[in-house]
Amino acid sequence: MRTTARITATGFALTAVLLAGTGTAAATTAQAQAGGSAEAAIPACSLSNTKVTVQNVSRPINHQLLTATNTSSKPCFAYAHPHLAFDAAQHVVPVVKDSIPQAVVTLEPGESAYAGINLSAADGSGTDGRTASVLRVSFDEGAGTQSRARTVKLPEDTWVDSKAAVTYWQSDVESALMW
User: Fold this and answer.
1) Residue 40: per-residue pLDDT
2) Residue 1 — pLDDT band, cuts 50, 70, 90?
3) pLDDT at 53
4) Please, what is the Cα angle at 77 between 76 and 78, to 5 degrees?
5) Is 68 helix (H, G, I), strand (E, B) or coil?
6) Which of 155, 170, 177 is nearest to 80 (CA)?
7) Which residue among 6, 55, 90, 112 sits deepest, i.e. has the most Cβ atoms within 10 Å of its Cβ?
């Protein structure tokens, strides 16, 4: 069964301000809270309110799907994109800038957000290729800060290289894997 996350007006406003370059997520969140909307009290999705999994996909090649499922009894915002690092890497993989959604994805209890992980260059142009066994995942907390990381076991024989990248959180699998 396909679960589609609800996109809220507050999330749309947050993204619009970020895309326009006129403010920060923290400033927009503060404005939303000052406005007194019921949406303003929604927390960021985090390690404490989600379950994170990663799986291979048949298409596109050299991709995996990262899924964050809201395990709490309240909605949460999946801000921006996950921050990923393979094994003991000291840097996070770059984000696919073109994958910015129209709005921040809001997860109701039991719903999921998705991010596509491009593992390596399909044409072999990547460098530093290796097999990775774990993925360190952290969340954007919505104020320009990053949460602590959770380690997720990768599928066996996951090959990564210097061309690895991740998308922004998306509300459906198809959008996450189109990049």
Assistant:
1) 57
2) very low
3) 97
4) 120
5) strand
6) 170
7) 112
CA–CA separation, 147 vs 97, rounded Å? 21
Q: What does pTM read for this prediction?
A: 0.77
Give residue limits of the domains in the chain: 6-176
**140, 44 Cβ separation under 8 angstroms:** yes
d(CA 81, CA 132) in angstroms, rounded, equals 21
Q: Which residues of 63-80 are buried (b: 16+ CB within 10 A; e: fewer)?
A: bbbbbbbbebeebbbbbb
Cα four-point dihedral sign 24, 118, 101, 176: negative
Distance, in Å, from the CA atom of 167 to the CA atom of 164, rounded to the nearest integer, reads 11
pLDDT digits (tens, 9 = 90+) for 92-117: 999 999 999 999 999 999 999 999 99
Percent of the chain whose pLDDT exceeds 70: 78
Query: Which residue is associated with the tokens 């320009």?
Result: 144
Q: At residue 82, does pLDDT exceed 80?
A: yes
Tell me the sheet residues that pair with 53: 67
Task: Locate the DSSP E strands across 16-73.
Answer: 50-56, 63-70
- Using CB atoms within 10 A of its CB, is residue 112 exposed (0-12), middle (13-18) or buried (19+)? buried
